[in-house]
Specification:
Helix 1 packs across helix 2. The longest helix is centred in the first third of the chain and has 13 residues. This protein has 2 domains: 98 residues, Alpha-Beta Plaits, CATH 3.30.70; 137 residues, 2-Layer Sandwich (Alpha-Beta Plaits), CATH 3.30.70.660. The chain is α+β, with helices and mostly antiparallel strands and 249 residues long. The chain contains 5 helices and 10 strands. It is 22% helix and 30% strand. A hairpin with a 2-residue loop joins strand 8 and strand 9. Strands 1, 2, 3, 4, 5, 6, 7, 8, 9 and 10 form a 10-stranded mixed β-sheet that branches.
Length: 249
């Protein structure tokens, strides 16, 4: 068996997230495993297991999701990539396939991730980007959001920003970068950290937007963190604006 590392891009619009779901085949992991099992000519009921660096939610996109898979194959890296891109749907692309060390694990070996959340505002409509942006009804105050973002960076217990109320594991994470950029009608939030909780980036984005719209004050962020209560934070921003940009190793 050989361990292969893959970089995958996908448009998450049609899918119920990365991870297997019991009642649907429409997951990114499921589509990858189906094609690889077909390539290996495995008997019905048997399947390979693709391990992803994270578990993006339904409707969330990725430019560079890292994953790995153990395969019993004589195919070259280029042949595996070509086979997968031939049989995968057009909204999933395998950008690279490389032979990895036997102990490489895409999730456990990851040391950081970068997410981008994109918003758009204006009097017209973002027709060609509508699947990848969240449309705002007005322009938020960027300076207020940047001030609030400073409170959210560092090592904190981000329980208030976790969408899983039954989370048993530690909710302490390090978020070392939150950058907010404006270009024309686009506002892009960049988050880099050593790991993110379920819905964490979307909740942080929603909370920052509430600051931008004057519904909260920047200094409220400190109290939200201290509360360790999901109800203290803002709304969960819609999935389509979120994209996993990169995984660090």
């Amino acid at each position: 068996m050989k361990n292969f590392k893959m970089i995958v891009s996908y448009d998450g619009t049609r899918y119920f997230g990365w991870e297997h779901q019991p009642d649907t085949e429409m997951t990114i992991q499921g589509k990858l495993e189906k094609v690889l099992s077909q390539m290996q000519e495995l008997p019905e009921g048997q399947s390979v297991t693709v391990i992803g660096a994270g578990r993006t939610d339904a409707g969330v996109h990725a430019r560079a999701m890292t994953c790995n898979v153990l395969l019993d194959t004589e195919k070259t890296e280029e042949e595996i990539q070509a086979y997968m891109n031939r049989y995968l749907p057009d909204d999933i692309s395998v950008n690279s396939v490389k032979l990895a060390a036997e102990r490489f694990h895409s999730r456990f070996k990851a040391i950081g991730k970068t997410y981008r959340y994109t918003c758009w505002y204006g009097s017209s409509k973002p027709v060609f980007d509508r699947r990848y942006v969240t449309v705002l009804d007005r322009e938020p105050d960027i300076e207020r959001m940047q001030e609030a973002a400073e409170y959210l960076t560092g090592m904190h217990d981000y329980k208030s920003f976790c969408g899983n109320a039954r989370m048993k594991k530690s909710t302490i994470r390090v978020v070392d970068v939150i950058r907010i950029e404006q270009s024309g009608n686009y506002i892009r939030f960049y988050f880099h950290g050593n790991g993110f909780l379920q819905n964490m980036v979307r909740i942080m984005t929603g909370t920052l937007l509430e600051v931008g719209f004057g519904k909260r004050e920047p200094e409220d962020m400190a109290r939200i963190i201290e509360a360790k209560d999901r109800k203290a934070a803002g709304y969960t921003a819609p999935a389509q604006g979120l994209c996993l940009m990169k995984v660090d190793y």
